[in-house]
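In full, the data.
>
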Amino acid sequence: MPDELRLYLKERFGVLGPVSPGRFEAELAKRVGSPTKREPLLKAWRAYLSGGGKEAVRSFYREVLKVPKGEALVYGMHLPFLEFYAKEVPSRLEGRVLEVGAFTGALVGYLQRKRPELAFHALDGVVEAVEVGKGRVPEVAWHLGWAEEAELPPFDTVLLLSVFPEGFVDQELESRLEAPAFWKRFHFFARLPLFARLLKPGGLLVYGHGPFLGKSPEGVEEGLRHLGFYGVERVGEGEYFLVLARRPEALVAEEEAWPLEAEPLEEEAPLRVPVLAQVGDLAEVRALLEAGRYAEVLARLAEGVEGEAAFLRGRALFALSRYAEAEEALRRALSEEAEDLRAMVLVELGEYERARPRLEALAGRGGRYRIYLGRVYLSLGRYADALRQFVESGLPEAEGYVREALERITERMRRFAREGEWAEVSRRAEFVEDLSPGLLTREMLQLGLRAALIQGLFARAERYARRLADLDEAQGFLGLALVALRVRSPLEVRPQDDLKSVEPYLTEALARAEISQALLLLGMLREREGRYLEALRLLERAAERGEGEVAGLAYHHLAQVKRALRRPLKEVLGDHKRAHALRAYPAPYLFQLAQEALKGGEEVLARELLSRARDAGLSEVAEADLMGLLALLERLEGPWAAFNLLYQALGRTPRPPLELLALGYRLSRAFRESPEASEVRGQYLAALYGEGRAGEVEALLLEELRAHPQALEVLFDLAEHHEAQGNWRKAAEYWQKALEVALYREKDLELSREVLRNLLFLRPHDESLSLYLEELRAVARGLEALGESPEALPETKEELLQEGLPQFHGEHLLVVGGHTQLRSRLVPLLEARGLKVDWFDADTAGVGKEALRRIQNRLEKAHGLMIVSSYVGHDFSEPVRLEAERLGVPVHVIPGRARGTTGFLRALKAFAPELFKRALKGVQ
């Protein structure tokens, strides 16, 4: 109940906690920094405390409503009594209820929430309070006026709670009064009948004195009986009490109601006591102090006394909440006992750091010292230490402070929960539990349960869950289900987990509140049992109410249930999309959904799912089902998307299978001019050669040539193909066609020179080739005329054959790759130029490990290594390259095709400096 009331006051009226009346001025200074602005309220507050009547009450409440959150100050001073009223009053209300002096309606609004079947009315004499109350609590009927003057129809219940003493209080009044003094002080027999006018005969009067001085529960009870009230009873004790009574048909008159022993009625002369001139004998003062007659104590002890008299005066001032004066008096007492009390006074004055050292030393005595030390820790933000002090004090008056400390600890637990610091949440819940398990509030148990589950502390989670279940909380039954499954959340439930065993917990939880996690678990159970219609309803509510990954898992199972119920594919895949948005699927699963969508005719949905799979990373899919993925990509996103993925896969594969290369070649035809397409085409041709399928190579190249007669790369490949087959005439024809394309169509002088050099190797005695040489010279002269500087052409065919090739001096070159005809034509030429060559062509290298061993042995004496990459497999050339790098031998890889004899010579010309450097180092 107190937690519920505090939450209500915090949300609607901004009340954060109790405020001591002695701290009113300090709390006001926090809200209004300017002394000038708070002076009117302070003046009204002093008049209110001096018993200034209705005008003082009206002035105080009018001024307090002008202050930001001023009404929270008023309710903070009444908070412990409001909690007492909220606990005891609601069950006793009946019929039409009127609260007298409702201020802005905090209590009457709360009572209306607890007993909505009753009609509630609020009466207050301050116009501003009534206007604010109508906005704060519109569900209550409001009336303006003072109760003694208001003309209203009588009610079944009248509440006089913390209102009857207002206007008649005095800060020097004793905290307890005898019955005659109480009647006289508050004009009981004259005023109460005016309040009773508002009550029907037989109606219930509820009286509460509130936080004011001058309490007399016996006086209230006896006075009501004298007035004729019946059924008089008291609820509570000490500071917190209610007196309940029922109104008779007619009240006893004021003159008759006064008991005889209370005569005479006239005002007595004020009590005059002599001020002590000497303080040597203080026994009488001590007796007055023990009797609670603080005003007489102050009258007997002058303001400037010292020693023990100052201590006694300080005690009286402390009892009257005049803390600043009490601190001054105790300072003059100069005793250890006075310093102990002064530490408490400093706490009341807000001087927490000054009070802390002494209170920490006194805390071992227990009792009120621990309460005051707890208040110090509370103000310093050390809420756990404060709670420990309040609990260990063992005093009933610490209960309010215990609740405040628990609320502060709960606020911190809430903040840590928002930040994901579940270890901190768990640590605080464990601390409170170790202190006293009964201190754990519902919210603490809920936060502690979540923290324990997230951390996998199932034993602790079970304790909290059982406590919550005992409190009839749905979260407790859900927690018991999760603990029984040994999972931290429904996201960890495995297919083999026995959900049937926790069904009672789940149904109990859902009987109290529709928790998304409980709905999800019960829906999963119904899905496993084949009760799909029930599962459908449960999972739909779980997806609607859930958040994050819980909602994502609910959508996933909802899609599976809809699939089992044969719902439209679009609906099923739509739920899968929602599930992925909240709880990401792995790429292979998204790929399967895209395949299913395409098969079902939902191409747009398939394209979207494939896009999600691409975002998740297609590498896992490619490893599992590359061909299926490529087919899907080609269908939905076109050849380039499929080829791009395949190209990356080929780069990661040491020996790609022929079918993948064939697929890559087919996909690359739409963009054959790109470097990637050319590379894949070369790999495919090399693989076909490696398989001995030269006929397929020739057919493929001829088909390419028919489609693109001017394609130089195709002409080069055909020429080299026929060279490898020993068909010199055909090779020369294709080299000649390539020369014509390079010279007349591409206007590429350098390429034309290379192709002409190939022709000269094949047909050294063909005089018609001289005409091409003349053509090249003519083109060079034309370029010179245009201002360019082409490289000069040799005068004879023989010079052209050996153009640019350096003269070697016994350097040792190792060559891997190429075909036999290329080796047979070039080795004599290179050896004639002074280069020692060991050439392992594609045919001789096919003997496997023995050839590899021989090559690696030769590497130790070689000055360089050249690899014709298109004619040798990766599994063969890569070990050779790695061994060469280990030995420090320079390596040159001819990328793609060698482009005949001159292609190799051009590469050798670029590589020659490395050979020379290696030879000059003296490597043999």
